[in-house]
Amino acid sequence: MIALFLPYNMVDASLHPEIADDDAEFLADYLILLHHNLTHLRRSNVARVAEATIHMLAAVLAPSHDKLAQAQAPIDAVITTRTIREIDAKLADPGLSPEYLCKSVGVSRSRLYRIFEPAGGISNYIRRKRLLETRRALADSANVHSIAQIAENMGFTDPSTYSRMFKREFGLSPKEVRALGWQGMLHPGSLKMDQAGGSNPTLNTLLISNSLGMSMDN
User: Fold this and answer.
1) What is the C-alpha R_g of the chain?
2) CA distance 101 to 95
3) Which of 4, 75, 131, 174 is most exposed by smallest CB count within 10 Å?
4) CA angle at residue 29 from 23 to 35, to 5 degrees?
């Protein structure tokens, strides 16, 4: 259980405790996301955490255009987390697409594209996740499927195209990754994210980058 305590002087007096089930679930997802990211946050982020959380509360307890606009950053972070969960569950499904995600998560196409822009776009993010999954499978000595079969399971039906994309992403060919992995010499890879705002990333950048499972480039 995660408990949230707020001083009275930090909350708009017009807010009331009634909250719809969908909004309560959205707020719970935000608090869980924040909890998971506490170890990544700096002391300088504390004020931003408080501000973002209050904006989120205001948006779910007394929604309005202005309150939703103020809470855009934490709302985007929750949408990102929900989208990632859906991608992970459907990663091997040929039907996984931006259109499917918009419908399943309940987000507009333009917002989905904007949120995933730091990852090179939603389609690029899905492709890289699938490449990472094939990389994990290739490095697993218990997985004796052929390279072509592993690639096809993740939707890469053209072996030569897959091999080129794989080497461009990881700097090694699928055969080299399999050889190194079976020798126990391969470490897990991670996605990269362009860090906006220099060396002092915003709270939203941290939440979204960690939700995406991406490392920050300084």
Assistant:
1) 20
2) 10
3) 4
4) 140
Domain boundaries, the chain: 125-182
* CATH no. for 125-182: 1.10.10
Q: Distance (Å, rounded) from C-alpha 84 to C-alpha 31?
A: 17
Q: What are phi and psi of 19, to 5 degrees?
A: -150, 135
43-52's contacts with Cβ under 8 Å and 24+ in sequence apart are: 44/200, 45/203, 45/206, 48/202, 48/203, 49/203, 50/10, 52/203, 52/204
- DSSP SS3 for 157: coil
Q: Express each pLDDT in 60-109 by its tens digit.
A: 887 889 989 999 888 988 998 899 999 999 999 999 999 999 999 999 99
**Amino acid at position 126, single letter:** I
Q: What is the pLDDT of residues 12-21, one digit of tens each?
A: 656 566 777 8
Distance from C-alpha of 210 to C-alpha of 207, rounded to nearest angstrom: 5
Which pLDDT score is estimated for 36? 82
Of 215, 165, 208, nearest in space to 192 by CA: 215
